[in-house]
Amino acid sequence: MDGVRADAEHVAWPGLLRADRGDGSFSLHNPGHGTSIDVEEQSAELVELILEGFAEPRTLADFCVAYEDVPEGLLVLMVRSGLVVEVSELAFLEHGFLRPPSMPIGVAWSWSELPELAVPGVWVVLGVPVDAHALGMGGARQGPSEIRRLVSGALLFGEGDVVDWEFGRRYPELRPAVADLGDVDPEGSRMDHVGSRLQKVVRELLVLGLKPLVLGGDHSITHYVLHEAIASVPRFGIIHFDAHPDLLPSRTLSHANVFREAIESPRVEHIVQIGLRVVERMTPYASRAPCEKRTVVSAREAARGRAREVLEGLPRDLPYYLSFDIDCIDGALARETGTPALGGLSFELASELVDYAARTFDLLGVDFVEVSGPQAAVNGAASVAAALLQRCLMGESSFETLTSDVYVLP
Known about the structure:
This protein has 410 residues and is of the alpha/beta class. The chain contains 15 helices and 19 strands. The protein folds into two domains: 9-93, Outer Surface Protein A, domain 3 (Alpha-Beta Complex), CATH 3.90.930; 98-401, 3-Layer(aba) Sandwich (Arginase, Chain A), CATH 3.40.800.10. It is 32% helix and 21% strand. The termini are far apart. It is globular, with a radius of gyration of 23 Å. The strands form four sheets. Strands 7, 8, 9, 12, 13, 14, 15, 16, 17 and 18 form a ten-stranded mixed sheet that branches.
């Protein structure tokens, strides 16, 4: 069964809402998932059999043996729609799962139709509006909506050529492949439950060959994404932009220790940290963290060209995950963040480095985190994140280099 685990115990979702239409057809709605299906009269009896068969927990394989007349496709649809769910997932799904996007980047996709729409290589946007594990000022829960608001749909998905004056390029018919699943529901449970919802989505995206583009939220969400990448991807590297190393010794997850599992995993072959500039006391764990696979480029070194040199020296035969904490950017420009630090990368340098990474490497996923709500009429942090996100989406598109003889202003 594609996309579902036949050997896992499943049960009908407790609290399904049913609306009869009076002609033998009806609709079923899962308020926790926000998903529904319409059941026509000819399928009504089969759907009733599925709900009856999963009144108590049982495996999908066992159900298929007991109910041979039920089409496998219909059963998978009900699992995909959250009408029948894994017993092990009830604890973290019962308070919610995904919320549809109000301002989607690209095409809005629903969870239930994901396998049918999935084309390998497509970027899939996923917001995680939480800041429960932030140690500084709160507000990163507003990040996904703030970033989505500032991504230019007309630029990315409009008609005609796109001219990039900053890099001197002309993109014929720029149309990046991107869809939006909405936001992981942050309500009604603990942070580890929110993280489990996030892992469930990321796991599915990676299995289908899709590329998660995650909008935070505080940086702790990156731990959950990397956990699934480590489980699914045999070998990969990480490109991390931040003012902080995020390697605090505490075993309690926070936005300040999200890369501990990655540092310790043999599947992660390279970790490049760009933009570090804080002054902090060395801990025993941090003294061991500088290992062969970890390269640190301070903000000062990055401004002198070392970050580009390090990226150019990375091997090209493995994919990379790019994590961008907005406090990497100069605080004078991007002050809407929970733990601001003096100095930082200029927008021009960050744009150059992200553009290089997007054009050069096979990015298996990207996140932009720690963007808070606006402090003024213009949210500088969200504006930077939206612009860098666009660079990631444009990275695989072909372009022509602009010169005076290939592009002339009217």
